[in-house]
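For the sake of transparency, this paper describes our internal protein records without simplification. Because each token names a local backbone shape, the row as a whole describes the fold. One such record is reproduced below, unchanged from the form in which we store it:
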Amino acid sequence: MPKLMIKNIGTLVSGDLSRPLLDADAILVEGGMIQAVGREKDLDPKGVDQVMDVGGMTVTPGLIDSHCHPVLGDFTPRQKMLDFIESSLHGGVTTVISAGEVHLPGRPKDVAGTKALAILAAKSFAIARPGGVKVLGGALILEPGLQEKDFEELAREGVRVVGEIGLGGIKGPKDAAPMVKWAKKYGMVVMMHTGGTSIPGSSTVPAGDVIAAGADIVSHINGGPTAISLSEAEKLIRNTSLILEIVHCGNPKMIVEVMKIVKEVKAYSRIIIGNDAPSGTGVIPLGILRVINFLASLCGVKAEEAIAMATGNTARVYRLNRGLVEPGREADLVIMDAPLGSVGRDARAAIEAGDIPGVAGVLIDGQMKIGVSRNTPPPNRKIVTGKA
């Protein structure tokens, strides 16, 4: 794998809310990892094989979709669509996190079957990367009868996530709370459905149930798509330290209302961003970018802060070694610019004006997976790549 220098970066977004912009214009990548970040004049070019000149464009961490419902491979039975994960790559998404493979036709609901599905999906996605996208698959759907020994086995076999509670036979906190404790004991991250119903078979989940169950993440606090009342959302924001997930396939008005409270209590670090597709609202390849735009153009969030909510925040919650531009992290990166015709002079200004930025390139583990996106408007500038 060649040693790469990315240079002439106009703005470098870190993914870290505490320091969202970096005073740097170059990145060194080797062996799929970020080796160094700084000013080109200060970086050691020794051993560099390839130089990528991004012409003053913006570089960000690869976006992380915190909420997806894959099954196996890159096909969704829900929307009968091929290559929906690869399509999200063209929206800057380099990691997708399963919230449960609930759309599998004939999904088994017995203990053996629900365990088998989670283990199979976890192991399959650990090897298969649709379009290069990293999928944290195999989110366990909680069903009656699961015991502590099952969680121990699941964790040993690579299952790292409990899909949003409420999708399976376990609905309320009385049954969920013991399972949540077992899941956490064995290192799993737990999400829970909240708000109104989303698809046939789902149920309304009040704030009190989410709190009592002890989950880590409030799934789609802005609805999925039907939202809980603002007073219920306010309880979750003010009275807990739960991670708050905002999704594209949700209620847009609630994003505005939720973010007013989040801003007041200084809880930006608790916000993560998901798509919640495939769902009844379809497959939206630019869903994560659209939520970033919504936050930055309508909710008073700076573009680089909104990007951090879709990168570093999510990586921290799921203990992923990516989502930040710093040495030692996986080199998942997006190169973007203001799109042709935008009032913004660069990607940040375009996002804050409500324009989808033009994606000029996406790297995963330091390797270019796509050039100019087929889904975003074209960027103003181009990448020039050559030998050192």
Remarks:
- The radius of gyration is 20 Å.
- The CA atoms of residues 373 and 386 lie 20 Å apart.
